Structures are given as C-alpha cells and as structure tokens.
Amino acid sequence: MKVTYVKAFNDNYIWVWESAGRAVVVDPGEAVNVVAYLKAEGLDLEAILLTHKHDDHIGGVEDMLAEYPGTPIYGPSEVASLTTTQVADGDTFDLLGQTVKVMKTAGHTDEHVSFLTSESWLFCGDALFSAGCGRVFTGDYAAAYEGLQKLRTLDDAVTVFAGHEYTATNLRFALSLDRLSNGVEDLLHKTLREVEALTAKGEASLPTTIDRERGINFFMMADSLDEFIQLRQKRDNF
Fold first, then answer.
1. Is 112 assigned to a binding site?
2. Total-model pTM
C-alpha cells in the first residue's frame, strides 16, 4: 500500500493511493497523465476523492469517467454534480481496506473538505500546504482558521498530501517575517535548502507531516484569528 503523485499543470499534485492492484485518485485536475499512470502500473480505479470545486482539482473527472465509467466519486456539496456520494464533516466511509474520515476545512472554498485515512494519511487539497495554507477566496477567514486548528490537533505522525508545490515560496515568506527566533530561523533555512535540492531534481517536496508543520508553518501555529488574518494578507501580497 502506497501513495504516489502525478504532476499536473505548473505545480499541482494529483495523489494516487494504491493497494493490491487498485487505486484511489485524489483531485484529478486533468486526466491524461493519471490515466497513463494507472494503465502503466496495471491499476484498476476504485474511486475518486474531490476536496473542492476549483477546476485544477476537478477538471479531469469527466475524462477519467470516460475511461473508467461508473467510478464512485466522493466529494462535498459544492461538487455535487460530479459525485456519487456527497460527504460532509464527520462522515466516514471505507476504501481499499481503510476507513476515511471527512473533515470540513473551508475558507479556500465554502465547502472544502479534507480526507483522513486510518493509515494516518491526510489528503487536504488546498486547505493546508507545507509551510502555508490556501488563499481565503471566500473571505471567511474564521472558517479557514478553524480548519487549520482542526488539522493542528492531528497526531504528529499524520502524513500530509497537499495539492500544490508551494513549499519553497512559503518558506521564503516565513523567513521574511520579523517573528523569527534563532532556532526557528535555522530550521526554516535548513528546510528550504532541502526543498530546493528536491525540486531542482524535479522531485516533490511533499508529503510533509503534521509534526514537521508544527515547526515551520506559521499559519497552522497562529494562536488567534487576528494573527492568522494578518499572516494570510501578508502572504497574499508576498
């Protein structure tokens, strides 16, 4: 059992969770490379998970269904036209021998959800990035903050599969802030060097872990809504 990624567009990751010749695909913004990967690996498509409505996360669904008709699709109400099973905060369902828990992590979109598996894998779309979080397109900063606080309480060992390769930029933003202690600054520089080495080779900086994010992600560590808003607005203009 493993999770791998398929690259899409400039910086998207489409996650493929595999077990015993079957696969679950998360947020297929486009289909061509995902279908090619599934066929090359001899994987049957078990289900598709959708975290939110943005086209770079759902744009490949119809083409995937053309290749794999009848595939179950799980997602929130904002993608109801695409789903066979609509999910909401607190729901659970079983896939590939794991129980999947649905967590509402709104703010980026109104009904954005994240999926946490019993293997401690978190598929969080654009709610949480390594060293960052998604833009609050809804303007509902309280919802975005609440979602990150939920994720902050997860076990250290939870593996985070986010939707974009934004890590280096997020770390540079963190280093631009005036709130750095020596220890934190050293950790951010060390992490940035590691990330740049990976991406220079065309490799992903993801996945990350909740434990790692507690040390480098100021958005998740924000102790108040006001602090979060200030950080997010600064990041928007970085």
1. no
2. 0.97
Starting from the edge strand earliest in sequence, which strands make up the sheet with 121-125, in order?
92-95, 98-104, 113-117, 121-125, 159-162, 208-209
Unique residue bearing structure tokens 């109801």:
80
Q: What is the tens place of the pLDDT at every residue in 98-145?
A: 999 999 999 999 999 999 999 999 999 999 999 999 999 999 999 999
The span from the first CA to the last CA of the chain, in angstroms, equals: 39
Q: Is the peptide bond before 28 cis (omega within 30 degrees of 0)?
A: no
Q: Is 52 annotated as a binding residue?
A: yes
Annotated binding residue 57: yes
> Under 8 Å CB-to-CB from 150, ≥6 apart: which residues?
103, 105
| Band (215; pLDDT cuts 50, 70, 90) | very high
Delimit the domains of the chain by residue range.
Answer: 2-237
Topology classification of domain 2-237: Metallo-beta-lactamase; Chain A (3.60.15)
